[in-house]
Design a protein that fits this description.
- This protein is α/β, with parallel strands linked by helices and 428 residues long.
- It folds into 2 domains: 256 residues, Metallo-beta-lactamase, Chain A (4-Layer Sandwich); 160 residues, Metallo-hydrolase/oxidoreductase (Rossmann fold, 3-Layer(aba) Sandwich), CATH 3.40.50.10710.
- A hairpin with an 8-residue loop joins strand 1 and strand 2.
């Protein structure tokens, strides 16, 4: 078996891993980088018209044979596996041949479809196979077993890949302190055995060993804050961090507050209703929807979807009346509308994402002399969890991926570590 990590040996984002035998070739994840060639947050819409050569030249994609729509002469990969619905793992999809079979979870598929819907994109894959926890599948020479994992990306998976007498475990992104932390506990109690190679993410390898705050503990902190604060509370988090929104809603219920969401967020939750009936929905008690004036809301209105949420709509009069009991997830449209009404002054901002993202929003909140309270826990495993994971699998070799610091791995995993370089083939 041959391994090529096309991207991710020394980088967080843009992950793409290739495994091949004599007869079969698969890719695991086809991610976009987190930042563009100028170091700015990546905006897909700026690059949709670029050719493969231009994407490669701008270092937004790697030159992978047969993957892209323009590669009509090259033999395409036999399959693409997507671990979860974060763009740094699936973002190249609009540029990829639609004939390549795509394997991913149901929740991952629904979130990707919804994301592209709001961007006016419709990347069509002719063959889509849904993966399920521990349900084995065969792709040519490969036998693949998906493992559902705890991660901030909804319905995320790791993969055990077997071929030519080798067993390779690809961790994907994972953690052990989220809403599905029991998955991590059960996995390390009963892991697959005889692993030759563990390709393991190392987002958190730069941190210190120790305890990671659990998602339920974060919820309890929010309950305390919501009870203590007066006036409007804004809670900034990713609309696709379903665990965090579930924690937020639970904290609102426990503190007697009403959660206000924008149409984009409630639509994302709505498309996941079948896959996860218990996650917060627009028609749940104490959830209201503020109809923002933005492109996402207009798209939902044009397609007659917005009407579905009309009974949950909150008006300005209700906001005035219930201001002290509201927690609002502040999309750009909500911030703009609430600023016009004078609702921002004197409010509380809780920021529940990686702190680096706040720099883009800081000028807005600075204008109102509001400093954020940072209440966040990582979507990735910390050092202690990485050590438990690797110890349970007990592989012969550990290969770092999705990390800025592969050189830190030997500090914790000793001579088992093999550090690779992007694009360099390795015989397993």
């Amino acid at each position: 078996m041959k391994l090529i990590i096309h991207r991710g040996t020394h980088e967080i984002g843009g992950t793409c891993v290739e495994l091949s035998t004599k007869n079969t070739r698969i890719l695991i994840d086809i991610g976009l980088p987190l930042v563009d060639e100028d170091g700015q947050s990546f905006k897909l819409g700026n690059y949709l018209d670029l050719s493969k050569a231009e994407l490669v030249d701008k270092k937004l994609a790697k030159d992978i044979s047969g993957l892209y729509k323009e590669d009509v002469e090259s033999k395409q990969p036999d399959a693409i596996l997507i671990s979860h619905s974060h763009p740094d793992h699936y973002g190249l999809m609009p540029f990829v041949k639609s004939q390549i079979p795509l394997y991913l979870s149901e929740g991952c598929l629904e979130l990707i479809k919804a994301t592209y819907y709001f961007r006016g994109l419709d990347p069509i894959f002719k063959t889509v196979e849904i993966v399920e926890n521990k349900r084995c599948l065969s792709i040519g020479d490969f036998k693949i077993t998906p493992y559902l994992v705890d991660h901030s990306g909804f319905d995320a998976y790791a993969f055990l890949i077997e071929a030519e007498g080798k067993r390779v475990f690809y961790s994907g992104d994972f953690r052990g302190h989220g809403k599905k932390s029991s998955l991590f506990d059960r996995f390390i109690a009963d892991p697959p055995g005889d692993i030759d190679y563990l390709i393991m993410e190392g987002t958190g390898i730069d941190g210190k060993e120790g305890y990671c705050e659990k998602e339920d503990e974060l919820r309890d902190r929010l309950v305390t804050i919501f009870k203590e604060k007066r006036g409007l509370v804004f809670f900034a988090c990713s609309s696709q961090n379903i665990d965090r929104i579930s924690s937020l809603y639970s904290a609102c219920r426990r503190s007697g507050r009403i959660l206000v969401l924008d149409p984009y967020t409630v639509h994302l939750l709505d498309v996941l209703r079948k896959r996860a009936p218990s996650i917060p929905q627009f028609d749940f008690k104490d959830i209201r929807v503020f109809f923002t004036s933005d492109s996402n809301t207009r798209r939902l209105a044009d397609d007659k979807i917005l009407y579905k949420y009309k009974d949950s709509k909150i008006t300005y009069d209700e906001i005035e009346e219930k201001k002290d009991s509201l927690v609002v997830k502040p999309s750009y449209g909500i911030r703009k509308a609430f600023a016009k009404k004078g609702y921002i002054e004197g409010s509380t901002l809780i920021y529940s994402m990686w702190g680096g993202y706040y720099e883009n929003e800081k000028p807005f909140w600075d204008e109102y002399d509001i400093s954020p309270m940072h209440v966040h826990t990582s979507g990735h495993a910390g050092v202690t969890q990485l050590k438990k994971f690797a110890s349970a699998l007990n592989p012969t070799t550990i290969i770092p991926v999705h990390t800025l610091s592969p050189d830190k791995f030997p500090e914790y995993f000793g001579n088992k570590v093999k550090i690779l370089s992007d694009g360099k083939p390795t015989e397993l």
